[in-house]
Amino acid sequence: MDNPDVELDLQRSVQAVLRELNAQTPALQSNQGMWRWSLHKKVERDPGKRPVLVRILLRELEKAEREDARHVIMPLLHTLMYVFTKATGITEELHRRTYAFCMRSLTLPAPYCTVALDCAIRLKTEAAVPGTLYQRLVIAEQNLTSELYPYQERVFLFVDPELVSPSVCSALLLEIQAAQEQQTPEACMRHVVSHALQAALGEACHAGTLQRKLQASPRLVLERYFHAVVAAVEQMASEPSPSREGHLERLEEIYCSLLGPAAAARGRCGGKRLLLPSGDPLQDQLPSIPLPSPHITFHLWTDEDQLWKELVLFLRPRSQLRLSADLEALDLQGVPPDRESARTSVLSTDSGIERDLPSGADELPSTGSPEMERAGLQRKGGIKKRVWPPDILMPSSWDGPPGLHRRTGRPSGDGELLPGVSRLHTARVLVLGDDRMLGRLARAYYAIRKRETQKFCLTPRLSLQLYYIPVLAPEPAASRHLELGELATFLGRADPWYENTINTLCPAIHKLAEMPLSLNTSRTIDPFILDVITYYIRMGTQPIYFQIYTVKIFFSDLSQDPAEDIFLTELKVKIQDSKIPRDGFSPRRRGVAEGPGAELSICYQKALLSHRVREVTVSLRATGLVLKTLAASDNDVSGPTYCPPAAAPVTDHRCLNVSVTEVVKTSNLAGRSFSTVTNSFRTASIQIQSQDQRLLTLSLDKDGRRTFRDVVRFEVAPCLEPCSGAQKSKVLISHRQEMERTKAKAKPLLMPINTFSGIIQ
């Protein structure tokens, strides 16, 4: 399509997206992100515009490369790859230019080179076998059965009903249901077959006739053609040097078989245009082949172990059908074990004397007898021992960054962590809410990591991806609104495309909740919220890692055991009005003047650029203090850090930023007066104790449900991997030799949240 008006219209839309990125203070924040969505909708309604849009985006990318305008490279590259995934009929010249741009971008610093490498790998596959990206995405997201591509994905959308209003929950649920009611397995298989044939045959494919034929085909016939197309594409994609001619001939045979002998006789299935039964050439416009939204399950988060249970249920149906020998010991927790495989004690009546043996006991049964077969199959309650790889005992030493997630550039679930066990499942956990919801996610993530140290049944078979969309309740006070969205603000500063696409979604979600509910799902709709969620789930592959902190709390009641908890964003300390009884934990020292606040003893390790350990101990009177884990401004995005892993960028969101409201006493002729001043410092770990009779109240992650009262002392330190501390483990090297090793270096537990680009320095 070379229509100048079409190209001018698309060029204006692309420029509008770029203006949003360049604008420092957008005039209408609620309309941010709409230009990208409308741009994709234009080419979705008219697929013939996609090559034009690819040419425009590639031209803008090459211009940004010449002018060194790196802030627009990531948005343009993500938009371009999203078009490539859906498009058919993209010329080899556009594929070659885009691949060359990605290869040149490998010389740029991270994360540009990381994203460019991932795009180059996908482009090479798509150029060799057109339609591969679309086919694999639909098969995985819709859980279609395929032996050649067995990967499965699911999106778990979690909402806390106490933090998000019921109207927002109902609106999101209805939009998801309305979009997914039309996405039956039969419709998805028709889309895969149509897209693969249209991508391979090009103009020789009569798309309208093909879709009508597939629409009229019964389920069994449709499945047969679906598996034939998938086999043709996957077998060609797995070859080191695929042959386009052989692939084209195989798909032509499938195409001719679909249309029947009449169409095959009247038109040629070669590289020429087909003819209608009347003999007229095909002139109809290419029909749109939609890319179905991923399979999303909506969950109200009411149980602490709900995330774990949903992940187990996601794995259980498939694992019951395909249990290899290595998976027998990795049974799911919570599933009752088989009674027959339980180890039991048996009372032996054998005296050990040969004459006590019954007659005929010394005669061995024949080789083919049933007794011999049962003896070979029975096990007397022994313990199986298998040869494990040396790195399998430490989750932190697995391939890739810490956590249950994959590296960028690999297929979801690719790789084997155990012999014969592949990570075929990908769980994309998307949480909606504010910082309190992320605190809850951090606790669930830590609980999963802790469970995996005892019996790791998820990690070898599941790739866990975490996503976050801020949904802040409309607050009359703007300060409260900003306070609950600190992590979203940090993600927006780190990734401008996340700021433009995701952080601007909150007003649209509330606007959707205010609209009257419509139970009629048969009408055609353009679900804006669902489309943005889908775009984020598919293109957000770069994680930003956040340090989880652990806090140990000691109470004034000595009979009460210390409590341990974790937090992700903030720990706030307030001084209670009540005091410790006279015979309590620590009496008030003499000479301490009465005044506001409490006398605190603070011992902390100061964060230094050299990463040396320097302990500081101070005593002061304070009215409160706040421990934050996120940088306060853009100037703090690249400062000192605590033990950063080599795979992650160096940023200071792994330091504690402590703000203490100190009480300053002044004496003058009018008498004694008190004033307050705020002091701030950074630390890796800290211990705080009340020195007088005042008690403390701790609030974690701004959540009123996670409050601890009557506290006299607490300790905060980075949370470590549950099994990465100093411990001894016996690794079976062979059947006869064992080696004992000690893992002395502890590694911090980092929770990844996926964004589009990661942290852009």
Automatic annotation (TrEMBL):
Instruction: Extract the InterPro entries matched here.
Output: PIK3R5/6
UniProt superkingdom: Eukaryota
Q: Which residues form a coiled coil?
A: none
Which residues are the signal sequence here? none
GO MF: 1-phosphatidylinositol-3-kinase regulator activity
One GO BP annotation is: G protein-coupled receptor signaling pathway
* Pfam family name, one: PI3K_1B_p101
List the GO terms this entry assigns under cellular component, sorted alphabetically.
phosphatidylinositol 3-kinase complex, class IB
Segments for region (Disordered):
335-380
Q: What is this protein called?
A: Phosphoinositide 3-kinase regulatory subunit 6 isoform X2
